[in-house]
Amino acid sequence: MPEKRQHPSRFDLAVEQIRQGFFTDVYFNRVKKILEDRNERPNVLMQVFQKKNAWLGGMDEAIAVLKLCSGRFLPDGSWEPGWDRLTVRALYDGDKLAPNETVMTIEGDYSLFAHLETIYLGTLARGSLICTNVKRTVAAAGGKPIIMFGARHDHYRMQVVDGYAGRLGGIDSVSTDAQAALFGEKGVGTIPHSLIAAYEGDTVKATRVFADYFYPDINIVSLVDFDNDCVETSLAVARELKEKLWGVRLDNSDKLVDRSLIPDMGYFEPTGVPAELAFKVREALDANGFRHVKIIVSGGFTAAKIASFEEAGAPVDAYGVGSSLLRGENDYTADVVLLNGKPAAKVGRWFRPNERMDLVE
Questions:
Q1: How far is CA 312 from CA 139, 273, 318, 359, in A?
Q2: H-type alpha helices, the chain
Q3: What Å distances lie between residue 265 and 86, 268, 277, CA to CA?
Q4: Order of strands, sheet of 294-298, starting from the edge strand that comes earlier in the sequence
Q5: How far is CA 292 from CA 153, 275, 280, in A?
Q6: What is the pLDDT of residues 212-234, one digit of tens each?
Q7: CA distance 237 to 210
Q8: 3-state SS assignment for residue 2
Q9: Domains within the chain, CATH numbers bracketed
Q10: Which of 78, 95, 190, 327 could form a disulfide with 56 if both were Cys (CB 3.0 to 4.6 A apart)?
């Protein structure tokens, strides 16, 4: 459990637009208008939950939304904050969740926060999806590092919260500074295929130039699948860079069979990056005196594929994982369950207190 929650200012919320209901399902904006125009102030307890075994993410941002954006516009156009008139109890980012467990309650004048349900539910859904996917992927890797390569698979505005949710799930490093922003670090990465292409497909030259600029400030990792011959390319780069080479990354296309595997085809699925390719590269590096060079694999990796690599004892030192960390769903629901302290939920829902939740200051 974190010692404290992230401060609301760290999330760089679009506060004015959220207050105006720009990102809100319109029916909630209409509810708020009705209550305000009729000067009705129903005191409700809103209960938030999801339906899976999961891990919680997005709570600190959801709380930030409530702190900065609950309230109302006055006739003169100024904003009257509402947070001080709400009582919020919540679990912490990173907490393990049971199905239907209450993760947050919001108690107070409903007209102050009716316009925020879309926002805080979406924040929790996204954060919990990423955190849960990462938790399962990290568990499959058995302690080996996971590098989050998901930035290119989604809108760039998601990077800050995705990276934070990934860290909650146990991710070791991320590929952009934005993803690392909320935990105070920087993105990491290897040389890209584009740099190799810029040097006419010469992986050795591209890696040497890269090292000339960035060694020893960062670990030098060469991408060795450009010629679809990972064994020979790994050896060529290792011979050139020697101790400067920290690792190689295998990222072969799922439509191709690496040249080193062609003689062995027939007993395993050879395309992309199979465990057998990692064995081939490790054997070649060790036989030529490059035991210090680590192996990173990427390209289509999921928790299930990582688990299969670990079961096979594949000589992999780290996994680069992209879109599988972002896929799936982890939906949240919010219900008014109490009105003025009395049951008010729709049929099938009821107040579910949760002693694990803490009062949010």
A1: 16, 14, 15, 47
A2: 15-19, 26-37, 59-69, 117-141, 159-169, 177-180, 193-198, 203-214, 230-241, 275-287, 303-311
A3: 65, 7, 11
A4: 173-174, 146-148, 318-321, 294-298, 245-250, 220-223
A5: 32, 20, 16
A6: 999 999 999 999 999 999 999 99
A7: 12
A8: coil
A9: 8-129+328-359 (3.20.140.10), 142-325 (3.20.20.70)
A10: 95
DSSP string, 259-304: GGGGGGTTSS--BSS-HHHHHHHHHHHHHTT-TT-EEEEESS--HH
- Rounded to 5 degrees, φ, ψ at 231 are -65, -55
Q: Tokens 């992927």 appear where?
A: 137
At 84, list the tokens: 């001080």
Which sign, positive or negative, has the C-alpha torsion 195, 198, 204, 209? Answer: negative
Q: How far apart are CA 319 and CA 322, in angstroms?
A: 10
Instruction: Report how far residue 168's alpha carbon sits from residue 185's, in angstroms, rounded to the nearest whole number.
Output: 14
Q: Give the β-pairing of 173-174 and 146-148.
A: parallel
What is the phi/psi pair of residue 200, to 5°?
A: 55, 35
The span from the CA of 117 to the CA of 123, in Å, is 10
pLDDT tens digit sequence for 276-333: 999 999 999 999 999 999 999 999 999 999 999 999 999 999 999 999 999 999 999 9
Residues contacting residue 186 through CB under 8 Å, at least 6 positions apart: 177, 180
End-to-end CA distance of the chain: 16
